[in-house]
Amino acid sequence: MTDTRRADPEEFFPEPGRLVPRTDPELLAVTDPVTVPTQHGSFAVRAWGFADGSEHLSATALGPDGTPVLGSDEAPYVRLHSECLTGDVFGSRRCDCGPQLQEGLRIIARHGGTLVYLRQHEGRGIGLVNKLRAYALQDAGLDTLDANLELGLPADARDYRQAARILEGLGITTLHLVTNNPAKAEALEQQGLTVRTLEPDVIEPVPENARYLATKRDRMRHRILLQPPAGT
Ligand SMILES: Nc1nc2c(ncn2[C@@H]2O[C@H](COP(=O)(O)OP(=O)(O)OP(=O)(O)O)[C@@H](O)[C@H]2O)c(=O)[nH]1
């Protein structure tokens, strides 16, 4: 990585209005914020590099004057978005990831806060190769949960420790979490953060992701508010 500063326990990096110590030896590098304008508004974007080679991105909402928008009750909105190359980049309709990413950015731009994009979370942590193998099993009849198990892999292999370190690095210890998945809140709580509320990330279902959403709702505890189309 270039244009990064090495993390140092003694070093501090600035957020407007506060200084936050870096104390995590696993966190090797963090970039200065750069402004990324989007259809939802502008975000201050940083890259985070960890000792295991993981690289993630944080995007903090900026107001019209270019300063971060913080929540009114000092608990910003946060979304932890797990990488989904097929959904986020290619707009696949098999899942809800692409629309959830955009809706998450929209919510955070509106309320203030940060979206953390977790790049080693592809396929609920099993990676791209295994996710596409799981898709083939789903095409043969299995649902999204059983397909992972059939491969001998966990239903959900994601680890949120690095996400927690990033939030702490940004000075966030109490937050409103934008998700339909209570397991994400539980994981952050286990890391010592306080999740004040779960804010739904609601998207319009399409026929192609109806079974996927129904499985997340019925077998994976997701708070899916929209009813998948009948008969699927
Ligand atoms: N193994 C597997 N992973 C999938 C499948 N469809 C999507 N994914 C992955 O599931 C993850 C979904 O991430 P998120 O949208 O952040 O999380 P979530 O658990 O759906 O919870 P929300 O916060 O409500 O969106 C991504 O890593 C996708 O790559 C699938 O059929 N099988």
TrEMBL record:
Annotated GO CC locations: cytosol
InterPro entries given in the database record: GTP_cyclohydro_II, RibA, RibA-like_sf
Superkingdom of origin organism: Bacteria
Cofactor(s) of this protein: Zn(2+)
Enzyme Commission number(s) of this protein: 3.5.4.25
Reactions it catalyzes: GTP + 4 H2O = 2,5-diamino-6-hydroxy-4-(5-phosphoribosylamino)-pyrimidine + formate + 2 phosphate + 3 H(+)
Coiled-coil stretches noted in the UniProt entry, renumbered to this chain: none
Keyword S-adenosyl-L-methionine: no
Designated name of the protein: GTP cyclohydrolase II
Organism expressing this protein natively: Rothia santali
